[in-house]
Hints:
This protein is α+β, with helices and mostly antiparallel strands and 541 residues long. It has three domains: 2-154, DNA ligase, ATP-dependent, N-terminal domain (DNA ligase i, domain 1, Orthogonal Bundle); 216-411, DNA ligase/mRNA capping enzyme (D-amino Acid Aminotransferase, Chain A, domain 1), CATH 3.30.470.30; 415-539, CATH 2.40.50.140. The protein is built from 20 helices and 22 strands. Strand 20 (496-499) and strand 21 form a beta hairpin. Helix 1 packs antiparallel against helix 2 (17-30), helix 6 (82-89) runs antiparallel to helix 9 and helix 10 packs across helix 11 (178-184). The longest helix is centred in the middle third of the chain and has 15 residues, at 341-355. The protein is globular and about 70 Å long.
Amino acid sequence: xxTFAQLIYNLSGSTKTNDKLDALSTxxxxxxxxxxxxxxxxxxxxxxxxxxxxxxxxxxxxxxVNLPIWLFQECYHTVGDLSETIALLIPEKKGPHxxxxxxxxxxxxxxxxxxxxxxxxxxxxxxxxxxxFILQSWQELSSRERFVFNKLLSGTFRxxxxxxxxxxxxxRTVQLEPNIxxxxxxxxxxxxxxxxxxxxxxxxxxxxxxxxxxxxxxYALEGALQELGDPADWQAEWKWDGIRGQVIKRNDQxxxxxxxxxxxxxxFPEFEILRSKLPNGVVIDGEILPYKDGQVLNFxxxxxxxxxxxxxxxHLQEAPAGLFAYDLLxxxxxxxxxxxxxxxxxxxxxxxxxxxxxxxxxxxIVTFSNWDELTTIREQSRSINSEGIMLKRKSSAYLxxxxxxxxxxxxxxxxxxxxxxxxxxxxxxxxxNLYTDYTFAVRDGDKLVPFxxxxxxxxxxxxxxxxxxxxxxxxxxxxxxxxxxxxxxFEIAFEGIAASNRHKSGVALRFPRISRWRTDKPPExxxxxxxxxxxxxxxxx
Length: 541
């Protein structure tokens, strides 16, 4: 655990890509083989499920250090992170540290894999058994190790490392190309039973019929369209707002993967017919969208069934799903990603047309003759529940990860509304001592109606200025939340709006964030609830 905790410390202590790459490369070159597998799993989103609740951890910590719960809560509100609060409150064990030095993992409990696999074993164990193991571990580990241990234990482990960076670090220590590594570490594998050698072997890639390909991602278009050259070299499509996914048919089995590498086959029983319709050895890349009567619906419709353990007949009727296919990655069991997009598209069109399924659509190509014409067409995006335009070079191969040059996303401008801040809460991590999480309200006659929260979009300097305002102008305190004087006005940007019975305002925003601080506008001039409802009528289809 000490080696892994040091890795996390090194990664979080720098914002430089090369520093992180060096830290990961060093770790993969020297770490325990089983630990390396777990690091690959953790950094690619395969986190262990939560073993105990945050409340249990808080109570056990207060008992261990003999602290009243109210004082623990005050500490938590100041630190802003439960795992860090516990790590700081428990005193260091006196005497030599119980964990052996790096390279000398003599005690089995010192290894990362021991702890995460123990968490799995304890998932359904009696509370007393969980408590005993956790209290013992807290007292054995250093503060830094305890912090990482708590993050893993509570299911809140996050690290600022992209999968691409991890793959590049692995490529430094094994004799494989990054794109091959990216493919082999994808799919449905268990880090508790898979060895490092097995994971990266060619045989595992061949025997795992469910294994998806790494997704090719686009960069946001920053320059002028004219810089892309001849419009005839480019294929334009609508940028759909749904769930990016791959549908795989191999060995008479059907698999549906999301871009986050979640196996979501059972979430979309509509697709089961593809098990018999699709030929073996086919992988389709596309967007899963709410789709009914030939129209793409607002993504909010699909959210009603995402995350549900069981999808009922009612869900299928109220939130029907369709697949808009826009690329073909495998055909007849052959990886065709190196073929030109124009060739892959031709094969995809032939395949989709042959299936004749109303909910399985080709993502339509947007025809245009010049860049000015495409600019005009793009303005229609929101009316069809699209986020803008995708531009793909017709000669492009299907690459791995986010690459510049061949695929670009050209999104429409977000919707905006001016609102006043009414509540503030401290952030987490490096912002745990600053009020950076805000709730905003619009006017409804003489009242202020809260309608959304946002915690991004300001500079560090602006966050510090708002924090100072909150501390000087707090009216009430509700746990970690402060009611503040409604004086600061902000422009809130968002991608979509939908009706919501769960919110007092009656609306829910998609991806809200702070666009700018309106120091030029008094709170009397903010938008109204009527303005929000009008936007709901126009854009909340």
